[in-house]
Specification:
Blueprint (H helix, E strand, L loop, with lengths): L4 E7 L3 H11 L3 E2 L3 E3 L4 E7 L4 E7 L7 H6 L4 E9 L2 H10 L11 E2 L5 E5 L9 E5 L1
The chain binds cobalt (II) ion.
Length: 134
């Protein structure tokens, strides 16, 4: 059911510093920082030949990544995103398999302008999984 790896998201405290690591140390193609107030994060997208890395920095008082950064003060991998062809069909199949979908269960428009859902890490090997409709 799942398709391509769309991105790996890394939560960081200082997105400018993290962007410099990817731009200068690793020589990657790095976007400008984009505030995403609807999602409580600022993002930087790093384009690799076969996938993307998404850097996330907390934005606002109750950012969804604030607690993650309390537990991981150096930053860390926050979630991985797989593409699916039909996000509602994927959701219904996963619920049928006993998996937990976070939030209301209705897809939201994600940072790339496409419908996304998040799946409970306890059902997926300890990894927060994002599904994005390709
Ligand atoms: Co993501």
């Amino acid at each position: 059911m799942i398709g391509r790896l769309n991105h790996v998201a890394i939560a960081v405290r200082d997105i400018a510093k993290a962007a410099d690591v990817y731009r200068k140390t690793l020589g990657a193609q790095v976007s400008d920082t984009v505030p995403q107030p609807d999602h409580g994060v600022s993002t930087v997208f790093i384009t690799l030949p076969n996938t993307k890395i998404e850097l996330l920095e907390p934005l606002g008082a109750d950012s969804p990544i604030a607690r993650f950064l309390e537990r991981n003060p150096d930053g860390g991998i926050h979630h991985i995103c797989y593409e699916v062809d039909d996000i509602k069909a994927a959701r219904d199949r996963l619920i049928g398999q006993g998996a937990r979908v976070l939030g209301s269960g209705e897809p939201k428009i994600g940072a790339h302008g496409k419908p996304v859902l998040f799946l409970h890490p306890k059902d997926f090997c300890g990894t927060l999984v994002e599904l994005e409709q390709a």
